[in-house]
Amino acid sequence: MTRGHLQIVVCAAGPAADVTRLVATAIQQSWTTAVTATPSAVDFIDAEAIERLTGHPVRSTYRPSGRTHRSLPVVDALIIAPATYNSVNKIALGIADNYALTTIAELIGRQVPTVVVPFVNAALAARAPFQHAVADLRDERVRVFLGTDDGWEPHPAGSGSSRQKAFPWTAALDAVTGMASGVPASSSDQG
Q1: CA distances from 99 to 38, 142, 144, 166 (A)
Q2: pLDDT score for 1
Q3: How many CB atoms lie within 10 A of CB 105?
Q4: What are phi and psi of 33, to 5 degrees?
Q5: Which of 52, 83, 125, 181 is 20 to 30 A from 134, comparing alpha carbons?
């Protein structure tokens, strides 16, 4: 028996190359999974490896017209990781200018349990638009992993490569699993 279907959206940031870690862990925990990539993230991931793990194609574009059936199961939980500065701002504003962002907008609108893990440097995270975007997403009951309580801080500019291995894939999965099962997750448990 599965926990349900976990949709994963990756954006164009270094940790995207390691999304198979999240996929494999989710499958071990009885989730079915599929991955959607923003158009820029396609070059960051190993789509063939992801497809072998999930059994689903990696989507980055809309379906061709005339196709009448859903290609993926109904979504029970959503993780957006890594989420870029650009994507976090667009998601908060409801901008849906590609397939991945349209999917995210719809799933948040359906109140699907959602976790966002930004991968941004401190200079970008200090910007008012980003801070407003994070606050707006949290107001919509989206769990944004960011800050000392989450154990995930923005990195100094130019140091993203050194932070890639520490990306909190497991903490994000634990949080969305708790949300999907109705168990509130405390920030201190998510590091």
Answers
A1: 7, 20, 21, 28
A2: 67
A3: 16
A4: -140, 160
A5: 181
